[in-house]
Structures are given as C-alpha cells and as structure tokens.
Automatic annotation (TrEMBL):
Residue stretches making up the DEAD-box RNA helicase Q domain: 13-41
Superkingdom of this protein's organism: Bacteria
PANTHER family (UniProt xref): ATP-DEPENDENT RNA HELICASE RHLE, ATP-DEPENDENT RNA HELICASE RHLE-RELATED
Any GO molecular function: helicase activity
Name used for this protein in its record: DEAD/DEAH box helicase
UniProt record similarity statement: Belongs to the DEAD box helicase family.
Organism, scientific name: Cupriavidus basilensis
Keyword Lyase: no
Amino acid sequence: MTTTTTDQTTPEITFDSFGLDARIQRALAEQGYTKPTPIQAQAIPVVLLGKDVMGAAQTGTGKTAGFALPIIQRLLPMSNASASPARHPVRALMLTPTRELADQVYDNVARYARFTDLRSTVVFGGVDMNPQTEALRRGVEILVATPGRLLDHVQQKSVNLSQVQMLVLDEADRMLDMGFLPDLQRIINLLPAQRQTLLFSATFSAEIKRLASSYLRQPVTIEVARSNSANENVRQTVFQVEDGHKQAAVVHLLKKRAADGLSRQCIVFVNSKIGCSRLARHLEREGINAAAIHGDKTQTERMQTLDGFKQGNIDALVATDVAARGLDIPDMPCVINFDLPYSAEDYVHRIGRTGRAGASGDALSIFVPADERLLVDIEKLLKRNIPRTPLEGFDPTGANARAEESERRRARSDVRRARPNGEGDEPRPRRNDPASSRNAFRPSDDPFFSRPYEPSGGAAAAQPDVTESHAAAFGRGRPAPKRPLAALLGGVPRKS
DNA sequence: AAAAAAC
C-alpha cells in the first residue's frame, strides 16, 4: 500500500497543473478556485491515474472537489450530448450517509460539470420519488445518493448500475455507524468488479479497514490530518456549570460573543431531538435568531433551515448529530456543545465544523459534573486535557436562569393541563412554535403515542411532532415513554 | 443512552 502524508501546508501548485479540461477549469475560475487544498493536491493526481483511494479527511478540507474534479475529468471522453438513458448510463456513483450531504455533493458536482455535457442528479429519501425517477430515466452519468433510496430506485428498475466505473463512499465511517453496511454490500454487488473505488472516512477504524480490504484494490492512502485528532486551530473550552443551568449558560455565551463583536453564527449541538427543539425555542425567547434542525423535521424544513443559516438569516443553528458530519457549512467561527456527545468520535466531528482551512475557531462545551465520564473519554481520544473553566460573569440566578426556570414550570403546567380534570393553568401558546401549540397534547388522542406519526398533508403541512408534544407534556430531557400514556399519568383511564 | 436512514 502506498502512503502519502502531508501536513496542513498548501503545496505551491495551482489547479492548472493537473491538466484538467478547459471546461472544468472554466467552472473553477467561476467559483474563484485557484489553489488546491492539501487533500485536493494529493487526491486529484491519484484519482486521475485511476487508482483506488483510501482518504482520511475531515469535513471542510475540500474533499468533495478532491474526488469530484478528477472524476468529471475521467468521464469527459465518454460523454456525449445524446438524450437517451442508454447513452447516459451511470458511470460514477457517489454514496453519502445523510440527505443533506448527498445534496451538497451533488450541488458541487453540478457546478464543476456545468460547462460539460455530463449529466448528474441526486436521489435521497424523505422526498417524492417521481422527479428522481424521471431524472434517472432521462439518463445521468454521475449519480449522488443515500443508500436506502438508491436501493429503492434499483428495485423499481429506474436505475441501472451495471456501467458504474467509479464509486465514491463519502463519510464511510458514518455510513457504517448508521448501519448501512448491508445496503452498501447490496449496492456494491450490483457494480462491475472492474471499477475505481474511493473511500473517504474521518477515522480509520477496524471496520473501515475491513470495508476497504474487501472493496478497494491496492488503494493509495491519503491523509491530511492525523485521524482522531482535533484541529489545532480550534480553541477548545469546557465551561462547567451546575445542572439545570445549561440553557442559561448557552444564552450567556452567545450574548457574550455578540457583545464582544464576534460573529453571531454558530452551531449548537444537542444530543436529543426533543432537547434540540426545546433549546431553539428557548434561544428565540431570549431574542436570539435560532432554528432547530434534526431528523424529525421534514426534508423541506431541514433544507430551508440550512439555507437560512447559510444566508445568515439564522445565527444559532441548533442541531442534533444530523449536522455533526458532512454538512458543508463554510467558515464556522464557533461550535457549542450544549450536551457533550455520547461518543468521543462525535465530539471530533462536531468541532470539526470550525477552524477549517487554517482559520481559527472556538469549540465551547457546556459541562455538568454528571458528564464527567464523557469528557474523560474525549480527552482520552484527543490525548490531551481540556481544562474546565468557570463561566466568567455568568449569574445563574439572574434573568437567564429565571427564564429557564419558568420554562420548566411551563412544561410542568402542560402536564397538569393534560389531565382530563385538569386543574392546570390557562393554556399558554408557545411563541415561535405554532406547530407545537396547535398540536398540544391531548390524552384522548392517545393512539397518537402508540404508532409513529404519519404525515397526511404534504410537506408544507404542520408537523404534529410526537416528541415535541412529549417535551411539552413531560418536561426536560425525558425520553418518549414506551408504556401506554395512561400508565405514565398515574392510572388515568385511557379512552379507546 | 441518541441520532441517522427507504417505503
């Protein structure tokens, strides 16, 4: 196995030196690209030679262009302008773990290939299949996909993978974590054995190595940063607060940054979907431009939120780990961990959203004593200590903390209101979250809890979010009950 | 423990 390793210094080369087609160079010029990033400098020549690649690259290293540009180059001689699917078989397949990442990879591919005749499209779940099917039937050379939806299309015979010459497994570690291995195996079995395979992963775990050894041939290993090590441009700080003061602490941090004239944009990571929506609401009440993104949001909402964030209409993107990896959000000045992640590797991915391409960044974590073990695991993985710092000027008994306390009271009052003979307060609609108040929890709706929510009114319809209502009913951090609701309410008879 | 991903 050949191994190439560099540090973060950009080699003194330009995109001209790769001998890319004029049509690609024109697209690059239009994007304002002149100097390749380290991973591009290493990957592009290797991919152009047709070699398999095992790439360790974090998000934000320019990885996508690193594989997309040479792939487009290699496909060019085969492209033609005829509009029949038979003449536009899928020749390059790019698989990603999440829908957003698929969309972003596609977006890049389409931009780099825009002056060529190559066609590309993207397929992922959560949206109507028909437009995807039509695009596939018209024929594309480059297909970006999430595994599940791709197999769906394969089953419906709307795509044929027998002509694929280049396969990209992007964020392969993530795909394995998410249990995509069987899907990946099924997909790869549909591809010709004679092909070029590129595998990118943030870490080279034993599983990744096993995957590589079964599907890659004499891969060239490309590594731009030591895996499992966080970027040195990122200032990591852990703020220790008392349990129950986390929301107030985040508000304090965000307002402090704004007051210090630092960029207001940041991603705030939360471990649960409930906590994610809850924190976003809380920040909004505190006058911070915030929005939640997590897996219970519709695909449309997720894309709109991401767009709003990229355009600067949203300052604080409150996210679950849906956003930890892959999402290509340029130049994040700051990442905040509202919760420390359950796995130390996720910590690396989360803070990898900042301090990219040589920029400096802040990774701030809220730490409560109960999370000691999580922090120790992170320190072990990073092989360094992260000092616990008191939060300067933070007054947990001040206005912020009072707001947090009132939120807890509100949550408890929702439970009282939910009782059939409810001695609860006046209903108080939640500001900034019409869906949640419209779908306020009603015990007579109980079946609601025993089956998953099925959308009925199209993408634009309000989302009666089961977990949201749970949050409202049961307060902070409680998991959705597995028992019937009546049992939880203490023997209130259940209508059926 | 949690999140993500196909219908």
